[in-house]
Amino acid sequence: MPKRRFYFLEPSKVGIQHITMIEGYLTALASSTSIGRDFDLELCASASTLAALPEALTSKIRCTRVPVMNPEKRRLIRKSLLELLVVLRWLVKLRPGDVLFVSCILPPAFWLLAYAHRLLRRTGVHVVLHDEIEGLFGGAPLSFRSIGYWCATWLRSRRADSRLSLVVIDDFIRDRLLEQYPAKLTRANVSVVHQAVLPPAAAPAADGQGKAVCLVGFRTRLKWFDAIVQMASDHPSVTVLAIGGGKVENLSDGTVEPLSDKPAYFEALSSCSAAVFPYVSGYAATLSGAALDALSVGLHILALDRPFFRSLASYLGPEWVTVRSTIDELSAELDDCRLSRKAQNRAARLRSLADSKYGIAAVRRSFERQLVGPTA
Length: 376
Description:
By secondary structure, the chain is α/β, with parallel strands linked by helices. 40% of the residues lie in helices and 17% in strands. The strands form 2 sheets. Strands 3-2-1-4-5-6-7 form a 7-stranded parallel β-sheet, sandwiched between helices. It has a 7-stranded mixed β-sheet with strand order 11-10-9-8-12-13-14, sandwiched between helices.
């Protein structure tokens, strides 16, 4: 008898977008003896996504290319229709016992998929919710051109007994959705598979390697870059870096150095004592990939009070995360003595991270509970 198929379908992202989550999930799946016994794994993604993943990982999995519209050039409706067609192709081919795991999909496509699934009545279909659901919690008026509008449209049309299973990437996201929409969502149809925090290939720097802090990732409107610049001015004894977008900018002396590759990016992060996240909005129902990168090398997180960072602080504790209500309080944490303390015990933090819910072993167990059963 042929094995059941586990289709890991990524119809939305290209290149390195989303790559950390994809790599973490696939690493967990491929490392599971019980899942490998019962399922053949097939990754369905764009050619550029397949090329961005380590060959040591993709060589263990059957890989299939799918057409994907570049999100940076997207037209919301056109891209949604392409995603829907790709998902429907795999939905139709599902055999009894197979699993279709859609790792990301735009809300308009999700809304249409929900109707198609209602007609086809396939079991074993899981869709991961990401930052698109932020629009449900923003409080701003929604237009049909916004992601939040389509999230709300999908949610209003959802039946409480829907067999289309939802997956979120952290506990606080599930809890917030269940609290906000009790008539539409239950613990039976919203599960959590945490995003794995993968250790980088290069070993992180040891404790106390210089007095440097960093802003991580692209300079979006959510990150209050001007506040980081002001911190560099207020704390001349601390080196303040902006790491991301292919470069390292030293905000303390104005120099800029290119980042040649992913190992260079993690090496730059590792040279710091802490990472600063003065995020002023967003992250009410999603994770910061930049913060997860910082965690992967053992950096202490300094952040303004957003739901994600509050959840992170509650789970990991004060050794890992400091959350403050105002930018002045956050800036005060860059005091030499405080910063020195935060740089300590990095090796112990990294050991605790491997054993946490963000470690590969925990993510693997989450998949096994879903696919094989609670005794896996």
